[in-house]
Structures are given as structure tokens and as C-alpha cells.
Amino acid sequence: MIAHAPPATDGPLFAFAGGGTGGHLYPSIAVAEAIRRRLPDSRFAFFGTRRRIDCQILDRVECELVPQELPRLSWVPWRVVNAFLGFREACQACRERFIVDRPVAVVGTGGLASVPPVREAARAGIPTALFNPDALPGRANRYLARVAGCVFAQFEESIAHFPRGVQVVVSGCPIRPDFQTATRSSGIERFGLNPNCKTLLITGASQGARTVNQAVVANADFLASRRDWQVLHLTGETDFEMVSAAYRGRSVPVKVVAYTEHMAAAMAAADLIVSRAGASTLAEIIAVGRASILMPYPFHKDQHQLVNARCLARVGGVRIVNDAIDPSANAPALRAELDELMQADDIREKMGRAARSVGGQGGGAAEGIADCLLEMSRLRWEAAAGNDRATRLETVKAL
């Protein structure tokens, strides 16, 4: 059950629902920061999961983490009952929490963890909205779109996948402000890289990507032959030792990092990026305007990362290497793209410009969504505010 702690202040509470990956959390953080710039005494609660990544990311954010115990959905008969009971308990906990400390708005960011808070908020008459950064909406967002007041989407392609009558706003994907200000020199300094070499960034997002890591280290000898390049390899914690061992004894100028909070600096330092095609990662690539080789996550039935990647590929902003899961197939396919792009400065620059063109509004997505949420919640907050909150109320009215 969720602990019912009394609020530290009487400022307006905004709740964000979803967790388990950086892609579910980082957009929320960007919007929360934009709201706080407008309304400094705002409070934020993140209804996430019990995965370590949630604590790791939110530890540096002024907010409350509300971890939810949600069993994975399964149609295996003996697990269905547990999943149902866990979901019902999470809904009851959210319902009780919203009575104790009622949010002025609840925003779902996708995934199972977003369902109980958004569902219960809608039932309680609390304004709700969704982030839909992937081109293809996931099951949670398709379900919740029926009750949400608004859906904020990164790509226009998403509109066709929601029923008529659902308000979809193509806002871009919220990103942290440092992606707008990070420079190559600051990124090089942050990671202790050689400013005279070009940088290949390998990233599997916040939790790493094993098949990407395997495909890259299988090309270690090739990378060693590129004397004017260095590698910044973000492995994820699980594969850190494996990747580090694979580079030992080879003359690859490489910096291996398990996890970093300084993703903007890493991308700004890069001349070429090899990555998955998660929605938040693509928003960040768009923001920094870098050429990339994308290996979409191959294990989802709907292949939504491949659809994401095609949104950039259609304008020439990325190259796609289909992840065959087998390293013996992935390695040569990746090497062919690396071999061309690491030699072609003009092609990489053209790809970077094309990628940036996809997200012309993305840099202001957090600000725009914050404004919409304040507009949605204003009447609710005004109705709840008493005379002792007159000063704050006037602040809200002035926005």
C-alpha cells in the first residue's frame, strides 16, 4: 500500500504516473521542471515502480517517489489472479492517496504503472493527460486515452492510432534543458575524451542493450583501425564487465561507462551515435542534431521502436540496422554502416540536420505541455484554494 504522508507544503500537487525506464521518467522530469519555473511552490509525486532505475533517476529530483507493486500482466492461468489482485490493490492505494492529497492534474507516461493513477484520477474528476512519445501507442495509452483529457504526442504518425474524439496534440517529446545547451567541448571534458578525435557514442539507453553491446564489441578490431576515432560506450550495469573485458588487449581508445546522468553531454560530444530507437532517446538525438545508426529493440510484438526509427529515416536522419538478435548477423550489418559513416563527414552532417528538422518543436515541448497542464488544472486549483492561498492563486491566474 502507498504511505499516506502529509504534504510538506500546501502548494499544488502534480502527479506523474509511469516508471521502470528512463523513457517513462525523463519526459516527466522535464515537464515538472518547466512547471516549477512557472509555479515555484508546486509539488510533484511520481507514481512509478520498485525497479532500481526509478530511484536512480529520481534521486536527484525534488519530488516524491510512490513505488507501486504491479505484477507483470500474464495470461498464464495461475498468474492471472495475482496480476488482477495486484492491479486492484494499486488502484485502491491511488484512490486513497488522492483523497488524502488531491493532485491538480495527473499525467500518464505509458506502461502499466501509469494505469492505476490515471484511471483513478479520471474517476475522481481530476484533470488527466497522457504523454505518447512513441509513434505507436502502447496498450496502456490506448486504454487510458478513453478517459484522458488530452494526449501529447511526439510524432504526427501517432494521431491515426487513437480513436476519433481523442484530443491529440503533437507537442514533441519533453527533454531536459541541458540538451539545448550542451556543447561538444563540455561533453569531451565531462568524459575525459580526446578533443582531437571524433567520437562514436554507443548507448542502449538507461538500462543498456545487450545485442547492441555484442554487435559493437564484435567490431572492436574494426574500431581499433579507425585511428582518428574514439569510443564512448554506455553499457548499462548488467553488461559493464562483459564490454570492458572485450576491449581489453585491443588498441581501441574507449571510455566504458555503466550509466550516466550526463546524457546531454555524451550526445553533444558525439559525432556519430549507435543506439536503440526508444522515443526519449530519439527526442534527444533530434535535439542535439547528430547522425545515428539505430538498432530498434527486436523483442516487442508491435515493433514500435522500428516505427519510431522510420519517422527519422523518412527524412534521411538515421540509418537503421535491424537487430537479428544473433551477433554473427548483427556485427557485419553494423560494420557496413560504421565503415561508410565514419569516413563521411558530409553525410553525417546532413543526417544531423535532417534529424533536427523532425523535432522543430521538441525543444519547447516541456514548456508547451507545462502551459497546457496549468491551463487544465487552473479551475480545479482555484476551486480548491482558500483565502489563505490568495497570493498563490493570483500567481496561477497570471500565467
Structure overview:
The protein has 399 residues and is of the alpha/beta class. The chain folds into 2 domains: 13-172 and 361-398, Rossmann fold; 180-358, Glycogen Phosphorylase B (Rossmann fold). It is 46% helix and 14% strand. It has helices at residues 22-38, 52-58, 77-100, 115-123, 139-144, 178-181, 184-191, 210-217, 220-225, 240-247, 263-269, 279-288, 304-313, 327-341, 345-358, 365-384, 390-398, and strands spanning 13-17, 43-48, 64-67, 105-108, 128-132, 151-153, 168-170, 198-203, 229-234, 254-257, 272-275, 292-294, 318-320. The strands form 2 sheets. The chain has a 7-stranded parallel beta sheet, sandwiched between helices. It has a 6-stranded parallel beta sheet with strand order 10-9-8-11-12-13, sandwiched between helices. The protein starts with 12 loop residues before the first strand and ends with a helix.
